[in-house]
Design brief:
This protein is an alpha+beta fold and about 180 residues long. The chain has four helices and ten strands.
């Protein structure tokens, strides 16, 4: 993985993700301890807005994303999940990884089955979509889809750790976009 970490969190999480690659079934939920997921930070072309979905399990406005479910092409996973969860046809700003995270997922019930607490080895991609295009919810996963300014995205996320550690970082990277040689 040739990704250059943005901060200490990404440096440490990159080390963990590289280690995880040697584990069995890491691209599948068969590995109930840690498995790969892909997320998208969907922005408009001016990098002033982000598209978020109100995630039912987390009871919060959140990025889009989902499980790799056996697919190693995580950009494809991020694109598919963005489309499924919002109805938009987002395009990658770059094929390069935008961000890395190891995320704790608390135990929860999904489709009537208890899912124990576990980790997501998450790879995030920066996608772009047109805010004038129609959006839609994915009723089994979210109850809303909305464009927010960068500040509103942080204000509306009720998950403190995600807001302060992940979404804030993603927005800082957006603001630096174009001033550096990285997406």
């Amino acid at each position: 993985m040739r990704y250059i970490p943005w901060n200490e969190q990404e440096q440490r999480d990159r080390e963990m993700l590289l280690h995880v690659l040697s584990m069995p079934h890491v691209f599948s939920r068969e590995n109930q301890i840690i498995h790969f997921t892909a997320s998208a930070w969907i922005t408009d072309s001016a990098r002033q807005q982000v598209l978020m979905a109100y995630h039912k399990i987390y009871d919060s406005w959140a990025w889009t994303g989902g499980h790799a479910d056996g697919e190693a092409d995580l950009l494809s996973v991020a694109l598919r999940e963005a489309s499924e969860e919002t109805g938009v046809d987002a395009l990658p700003v770059s094929r390069e990884i935008y961000s890395l995270e190891v995320l704790m997922v608390d135990g929860h019930v999904k489709r009537g089955v208890y899912v124990p607490s576990h980790l997501h080895a998450n790879v995030t991609y920066l996608l772009e979509a047109d805010p004038s295009r129609s959006i839609r919810i994915k009723a089994d996963e979210n109850s809303g889809v909305c464009w927010f300014t960068l500040d509103q995205a942080l204000e509306n996320c009720s998950e403190k750790w995600m807001r302060e550690r992940i979404y804030k970082k993603l927005n800082e990277k957006l603001l630096a976009f174009g001033r550096e040689d990285r997406p």
